[in-house]
Every structure is written in structure tokens, then in C-alpha cells.
Specification:
With 273 residues, this protein is α/β, with parallel strands linked by helices. It has 10 helices and 10 strands. It has helices at 62-70, 92-97, 115-121, 129-142, 144-148, 159-171, 189-204, 216-222, 240-245, 247-253; strands at 22-32, 37-47, 51-55, 74-82, 85-86, 100-103, 177-181, 208-212, 225-230, 233-239. The strands form 2 sheets. Strands 6-7-8-3-9-10 form a 6-stranded mixed beta sheet, with helices on both faces. Strands 2-1-4-5 form a 4-stranded antiparallel beta sheet. Mean pLDDT is 85; it is low at 1-17 and 256-273. The chain binds adenosine-5'-triphosphate (ATP) and magnesium ion.
Length: 273
């Protein structure tokens, strides 16, 4: 029998139980777009196998934070450490090669290309066509809209369907870290549920997920870990539950006193979102 050391435990084995091992660490990260920094000394960990949800008001710097992960936003001070290695000099492509894949906030499919072509583009850094085909077939099985609309132009899909195709595209690289920026934005409640279910399923199947979610309460409910960002600073970090149940955070960001149950039928979305 194989010895039960951590080397023999794939990160696909016990997905819902996040290990304490960080896959990604933010260490005192300051970042911006060339002018004054937008992020200020941001420090927190994204545990391997966990689902970490970042919440905060509009303009707090959530997308900027994710930009530092994919490498499109420059870190001025501090560093990001992925699997124990600094990312500072890694280009966006090198980060993809290391398994960091992002689905951006705005829709990003090529509308004139088919769904299949868009999904396969997710594997553009892979040369082995057999792997690309096999992955595509696997993903088309798990995200049915891909198989159903494979030959249709991506632009003919609804917003929610496009979102699911974007998820499919990001899975083509078999990512170690899936970074999702507001995946439920602009979706009707039914489609939003499907999107959340898909996010949960990514996590349950062992992916480490870093999620920014406008629907803070729903995002934190899915999450093993939560981070509240305000004015580019970490206001609170803890387990998803701790953040969800923090009364101050609840009053500020979650539309009321948290811990108190929502009245039946009350929307999950906080006021103003
Ligand atoms: N490309 C850019 N160039 C310059 N400033 C930017 C750029 N993108 C964002 N900003 C600024 O950075 C700040 C944080 O923006 P960011 O998009 O990260 O916030 P957010 O928390 O994702 O907001 P939202 O909830 O609206 O998506 C804002 O003040 C914004 O104006
Ligand atoms: Mg944003």
C-alpha cells in the first residue's frame, strides 16, 4: 500500500476541505496603474483547495487585486508568492503556464467565433492537439451548454451562457488556480444559481478558486475563506463564515445585520448592487 504522505495526496482528493497550505500568498502588496497606488499593503493567503471570496464595495480594488494575480497590474511594493515562488517577474503568459487562469469581469468571448473555437482558445499555449481535444470533450460533458451550442457563434448566447463558456475556456489549461471576477454580474436569479453551482462544483472537484463576487452574501456562503477589501486595504480576512457573521461587516457590506436570518423572500443582493 502506498504510504499516506502528502506527496501521495492529489489536490483533487479532498477538495471541500481546504488545506492550510497556501497556494497563493499576498505579502504586503501595493499596486496601481502608474499613478497613486490603488492597493495598499494587502496581505492574505489563498489556501490550496479552498474557495476564497473577496468582497467589497465598487471601486475597492477587487479587480485590481485580481490583476496582480494574472500579471496585468503591476505590483509596486510587496510580492505575490505562488507555490512558494515569487511571481513578481512572471509575465501573464508564464502565470498561465503555471496554472493561474482568470475569467475577467467583462465578457471576453470572441463573438464571431463558435463556442467550441472559443473554448479551445483557452488552451492556446498547449501544442499537443490530442490533449486539447480530450480536454475539450471532458469539459463539454461537465458544462453542457458547450456541447449543446458548440457550433453556434458565441455572440448568439445569453450573458449567463457566455459566462459558462468562459468557465469552460479557463478549464482547458487544467488550472491550479481559477480566478473569477464577478461571475454572476448581470445575470437573472436562475442563471446566477447555475453559475454559483458551477463555481461550487469547480471547488468540490479540487480546484483552488479565488472569487470576487458582487453578491457578497452568496459568494461568502460558497467560500471556505473570505476577505473584505475597502479602499484598497484588507479590512477583514477569515473563514467565509467569520466574515459572513461579522456584525460590522454585515451592516456595511451585506445589507443588514448578519447572523440575523434574512426574511423569507428577501433578496440576497445588498442594497445598491
Ligand atoms: N485601467 C485602469 N487605469 C487607471 N485606474 C484604474 C483602472 N482600472 C481601475 N482603476 C481604478 O482603480 C480603482 C479600483 O478599481 P477596481 O476596478 O479594481 O475596483 P472594483 O473593486 O473591482 O470595483 P467594481 O466592484 O466596480 O468592479 C478605481 O478607483 C478605478 O478607477
Ligand atoms: Mg471589479
Amino acid at each position: 500500500m502506498a504510504p499516506q504522505t502528502s506527496d501521495h495526496v492529489s489536490d483533487r482528493v479532498a477538495p471541500a476541505l481546504a488545506s492550510t497550505q497556501p497556494l497563493l500568498e499576498f505579502r504586503g502588496v501595493c499596486a496601481g496603474y502608474g499613478g497613486a497606488d490603488i492597493l495598499h499593503e494587502v496581505s492574505f493567503e489563498v489556501p490550496e483547495g479552498g474557495l476564497t471570496c473577496v468582497v467589497g464595495p465598487n471601486g475597492a480594488g477587487k479587480s485590481t487585486l485580481l490583476g496582480t494575480v494574472s500579471g496585468v497590474v503591476r505590483t509596486t511594493v510587496g510580492e505575490l508568492v505562488f507555490r512558494g515562488e515569487r511571481l513578481k517577474k512572471a509575465t501573464p503568459r508564464e502565470r498561465l503556464e503555471r496554472g493561474i487562469v482568470q475569467v475577467p469581469q467583462n465578457h471576453s468571448l470572441f463573438r464571431e467565433m463558435t463556442v467550441r473555437e472559443n473554448v479551445e482558445l483557452g488552451a492556446f499555449i498547449l501544442k499537443d492537439r490530442t490533449i486539447v481535444r480530450e480536454r475539450y470533450e471532458q469539459i463539454a460533458e461537465t458544462i453542457p451548454i458547450v456541447a449543446e451550442r458548440a457550433k453556434d457563434k458565441a455572440g448568439s448566447l445569453s450573458g449567463g451562457q457566455q459566462r459558462l463558456v468562459e468557465f469552460a475556456r479557463c478549464l482547458m489549461l487544467d488550472p491550479a488556480l481559477v480566478v473569477l471576477d464577478e461571475p454572476s454580474m448581470g445575470l437573472d436569479p436562475h442563471t446566477r444559481k447555475i453559475v454559483f453551482k458551477t463555481v461550487r462544483s469547480l471547488h468540490r472537484h479540487g480546484r483552488t478558486v479565488l472569487l470576487v463576487e458582487q453578491n457578497a452574501r452568496a459568494g461568502l456562503r460558497l467560500a471556505t475563506h473570505g476577505v473584505v477589501l475597502e479602499n484598497g486595504r484588507v479590512r477583514l480576512a477569515g473563514s467565509g463564515r467569520e466574515v459572513l457573521e461579522n456584525p460590522e461587516i454585515g451592516a456595511l457590506f451585506l445589507g443588514g445585520v448578519v447572523g440575523a436570518s434574512r426574511p423569507a423572500g428577501a433578496p440576497e443582493t445588498p442594497p445598491g448592487r
